[in-house]
């Protein structure tokens, strides 16, 4: 109950969240390995979306290069593990620090020279692409040949070394996504959250109210990058292999932003709702197109669904869904 | 005038070929209400922008409470004690009216509950309390102007810069606002610098009037005195007469 009050939920919304959590906790016991692997994809999408949402949804700075921070988190922790046997939990912290530094540097560079809006977005793409090419030639982490984590025997899960089954990753990601939810909520409820939203809505007015816009934008970027890198570490130890061209892929940056946009940009639950819908839809379409032997069915339906949602609910599914279910999320 | 709260000394601003503000000086004493008037394009908003740090003056200096704040950033000006409204309103549209004002209140406190309380008080004072939970984008223009004022006031400024916040109000509403500002200044010692085309408000509220024309200060003094000044009459009435007499 305290948790629900801390999240500012109505009793009905708290009950819904509780039910959802209970289902999520039990789900791995009820479904087969395939579904678990799909749910892992859902939770990765949700968590990356939540991380990106802080930068773009809350503070209003469009980043189209978040694959950069996924990659920095993934490569830092994986390389430290492969070369020095460093536990991924420490490698994770190192990766978060590297990503936060990179994010702050990019943001500082852009905002110092008054690069904003779409130009800032272009710059974030440029840095992600530039880093991808850099890693293509970075022999210590395998360059284009890839970096591989030794696959241990999966007799039992080893959370300390992050070696284990998809079910272990499922639970780790579930905790992570919940933690991101609580953190996002608590940030929105504080001065920093109000300031970010003020900056998103009108920078000039924000400045006139005493907000050091430059500092708050950098803080948003650093936090968003660090959170993304944390997910990157889990991704590295889940996939066990890293190639610059997939880890830093432009497509990944795009994928990260679709779930929160479809779910509801700047809302607390939007990234989670969006991740479920999009991943679920994508998987269903893949299966249908295999079943009916129509190639391209997935892309068609996926595209059509995105169009329909954007056209019918431009502010995202969550605001509409929460109203329809009577779980009004107080907008902050 | 060395005891002035705000002292503007010979500030100028040029846009391309246009001298928008030309060597303007005036002062606002602590608790004083000063009006900056003049026809459209006289340079009033530009003067506000210079004082509030939104623009850097080409020359001159701005002193607030003994500290030179010339050329500082807008957020620094705010933290130094300058609260300003925008003539072209800039609400945080997706946030509620209350949240808009809380953003301002967070300058004085990091505590959410305290910020909320302070914001409520201001909304009540300015007659916006019933709209507190509405998104700011749903407000009418006069309400948005009041929201500008509320937000600036929430930063607890030493001096409040009001840029045509009464435009579009009905006479009874103007009288209400005038009373609210007069009370505020009297009770809290807040100094106010305002520009307004609504002469009814200017005459009722201000202790001192500064008149700008083509970026230059052409006259200043007590309201009655300024109202009789031939140069002022010419730049105001001259316009009216010119409009009435085609070919003039
Ligand atoms: N950013 C700018 N760039 C170029 N010219 C500007 C800029 N801002 C104002 N001006 C010009 O400077 C002059 C003074 O404008 P200002 O907005 O200060 O007048 P004002 O006295 O506030 O007028 P109003 O009563 O219409 O609000 C005008 O001619 C205006 O067109
Ligand atoms: Mg003006």
Explain what this protein looks like in three dimensions.
The complex is a heterodimer of chains A (332) and B (248). Chain A has 332 residues and is an all-alpha fold. Chain A is 74% helix and 1% strand. Chain A has 15 helices and 2 strands. Chain A has helices spanning 2-6, 11-30, 33-58, 67-84, 88-112, 117-136, 166-188, 191-201, 203-208, 213-239, 244-247, 250-264, 270-291, 297-312, 317-324, and strands at 147-148, 241-242. Chain A has a two-stranded antiparallel ribbon with strand order 1-2. In chain A, α3 (33-58) crosses α13 (270-291) and α7 (166-188) packs antiparallel against α10 (213-239). The longest helix of chain A has 27 residues, at 213-239. Chain B has 2 domains: 1-81 and 158-248, P-loop containing nucleotide triphosphate hydrolases (Rossmann fold, 3-Layer(aba) Sandwich), CATH 3.40.50.300; 91-156. In chain B, β7 (159-163), α6 and β8 form a beta-alpha-beta unit. The structure holds adenosine-5'-triphosphate and magnesium ion. Residues 44-45, 87, 163 of chain B line the site of magnesium ion.
Largest interface: chains, residues each: A-B, 23 and 30 residues
> What is the β-strand count of chain A?
2
Structural class of chain B: alpha/beta
Number of strands of chain B: 10
- Sheet-strand content of chain B, in percent, reads 15-25%
Helix share of residues of chain B? 25-40%
Total tally of structural domains of chain A: 1
Residue fraction in strands of chain A: under 5%
CATH topology of the largest domain in chain B, by name, is: Rossmann fold
Spatial strand sequence of the major β-sheet of chain B: 6-7-8-3-9-10
The N- and C-terminal alpha carbons of chain B lie at a distance of: 41 Å
Low-confidence stretches of chain B: 242-248
Low-pLDDT stretches of chain A are: none
Cα-to-Cα separation, first versus last residue of chain A? 21 Å
Query: CATH superfamily name of the largest domain in chain B?
Result: P-loop containing nucleotide triphosphate hydrolases
Going across the major beta sheet of chain A, what is the strand order? 1-2
Shape descriptor of chain A reads globular
Question: What are the secondary-structure elements of chain B, in order, as H or E?
Answer: EEEHEEHEHHHEHEHEEHH
Query: What is the tally of helical segments of chain A?
Result: 15
